[in-house]
Amino acid sequence: MADPTAKQFLEEMIPQRITAKPELLKEINAVIVFDIGGNKWTVDMTRQNEWVKSGAEGVTPKMTVTASENDFVAVASKKLDSKMAVMSGKLKLKPMDLNLALKLGKLLS
Fold this sequence. Notes:
Distance between the termini: 18 Å
Structural class: alpha+beta
Number of helices: 5
Largest sheet: 5 strands, mixed
Shape: globular
Low-confidence stretches: none
Strand content: 15-25%
């Protein structure tokens, strides 16, 4: 099976993971913008449903995750360790909130 695209991962797999582990909503409880290859998605984990939307207009995120499509897909498909991706600059987190980053790792892996 081919790796999912960033769009598939964010719009399909993230909601599936939240549905399977609803405790992540309370644990993360933040708005995160993903800027992947120039395309943006907002993941709002302060809501009870409709967590992912395309775009980031009018949003004040607690963190923005920036990566190329290839690097993000590699992290999402577990071909690239997320911690190594952050340390090597392939995955950028602004602001760098280590606590939130560790919680976000639970959602992405």
